[in-house]
Each structure stands twice: as C-alpha cells, then as structure tokens.
From TrEMBL:
It comes from Amphiplicatus metriothermophilus. PROSITE patterns: PSI_RSU, S4. Residues 13-72 form the RNA-binding S4 domain. Keywords: Isomerase, RNA-binding. This is Pseudouridine synthase.
Length: 254
C-alpha cells in the first residue's frame, strides 16, 4: 500500500529530513532507502521522499520503529579497509554500519571513506550535525597519510597549495608534504578542506603516484590518535561543545 495520501499544505516534515534528524541516514541515503521500499509510514510502504510526516505517524525502516530525534552525539571510529560507508550495499559488501551495529544506536557518517581507505570516520546520531560538519564553509581540514608508489618532487607538492583542476573538476588548496621514502614508495601527509569524492587518490594519481595505502588521521579538531583499528569512542558532550562552538551548537540544539 502507498502512504501518499492527501496532506494539508505545509504540514509535517519531509520524510528524508525526519530520517536524517533521527540519525537513520543522510537525506540522500534516506531517499535510497525509500526507493528500496523499506520505509513505511503507519504500515504503508513509502514511495516518495516528498511525503511529510507528523508526530502522530509511525515511521519504520526495515521494520524498526524510528523514534523522536535524540540530542546530538558524535563518535570517533577507526575504520578498517574493506568496509563501505553506506547503510545498504547493492553488491553485498560489508559496511561500516554493520560492523558498528552492536555498539551504537542508529548513526550516520560525517562524510565518507571509500572501501580501501582506513582511519578516522566520525559517526553521529544527528543528521543536522553531519551536514554542518561536511560543509567546506565550516573550515575543518581533513588530514591524511598516504603511501604511494612512484616519484614526486617537493615542487610538485608545493604547487598544490593554490588548488588544481583534474578532468574538469576544480580542487581547492591542498597542503602536501613528503615525509619519507620507503623503497619505491613515498609517505606523504595531505591536508584538504573540501573532501570531494576520492579527492586525495585523484590528486596523487594526477602526480603519477599510485596510492597503496590511505589513512585519515584527523577531521577538523578530532584526531585518530591511538584509537585501535575497529574501535569506537564517543566524544564527550563537553568537548563536543567546545570544539563545535556556540553557533553550531545553537543550530543543532546542543
């Protein structure tokens, strides 16, 4: 049955936004869940992300009831390589959220790390916080360590500070330094502020380097530090407020 019954103009909250605020999925992920037919409202399968829900409606995802949004929380997760950052993978590959399911409430990620990339991934139960931290305007730098096969000069890395265009895509300023060489590989530290899809890999490939290991070690003020691979650690609310600042805290009601 369809849940698309007539609604008063302006009533309720769009389902994708509701699911995002409840920590079920990002708005884009929520739209995919709706397309998959796993979202129901009052027992009816939803078919459109334009549907608006009101507090008296019962919303379920995969049969699990979605409650009212909770206060914003944030976790550091040391993502291992081999996990995809998605709630449902069409290819059946293991996901970040499956790996963390027995240790966390429903969460979404702040940005993504691709299948082969490891390191710091921030997880939150609050869609508004995730969106805010992903915005380039927040100014938070993502820092990576990369091991890549090939030769690169300091001048090539220094030239990235003004940004670069690759295949018609413009990437903003990049800070890159050569840390050491190890046989035919180079270890580099790369800092970016935008986090476009596979940005670090594409930039290094453009320089003639083949990345064979990529680790995110920091996202803004939050560090991977000594967190063990696969481990999860919640960021205390006091520290979270200090790092987010009053403006963001006010936006998300923290």
């Amino acid at each position: 049955m369809s849940a698309e019954r007539p609604q008063p103009l302006g009533s309720g909250e769009r389902i994708a936004k509701f699911l995002s605020r409840a920590g079920v999925a990002s708005r884009r992920e929520a739209e995919r869940l709706i397309e998959m037919g796993v979202v129901t409202v009052d027992g009816n399968t939803l078919t459109t992300p334009a549907f608006k829900v009101t507090p008296d409606m019962e919303v379920r995802v995969d049969g699990v009831r979605v409650g009212a949004p909770e206060a914003a929380r944030l976790w550091r997760y040391h993502k291992p390589a081999g996990l995809v950052t998605t709630h449902k993978d069409p290819q059946g590959r293991p996901t970040v959220f499956e790996a963390a399911a027995d240790r966390l409430p429903r969460v979404i990620s702040v940005g993504r790390l691709d299948l082969a990339t490891e390191g710091l991934l921030l997880l939150t139960n609050h869609g508004g916080l995730a969106r805010r931290l992903e915005l380039p305007s927040t100014g938070w730098v993502r820092r990576y360590r990369a091991r890549a096969y090939g030769q690169v000069g300091e001048a090539d890395l220094a030239a990235l500070k003004d940004g670069i265009e690759i295949d018609g895509v413009r990437y903003g300023p990049i800070r890159a330094s050569l840390d050491r060489r190890q046989g035919g590989n180079a270890w580099l530290t790369i800092s970016i502020a935008e986090g476009k899809n596979r940005e670090v890999r594409k930039i290094l490939d453009h320089l003639g380097l083949r990345v064979n290991r990529l680790i995110r070690v920091a996202y803004g003020p939050f560090q991977l530090g000594s967190l063990k691979k696969g481990a999860i650690e919640e960021i205390p609310t006091k520290q979270l407020r200090e790092q987010l600042g009053k403006k963001i805290c006010a936006e998300i009601g923290l």
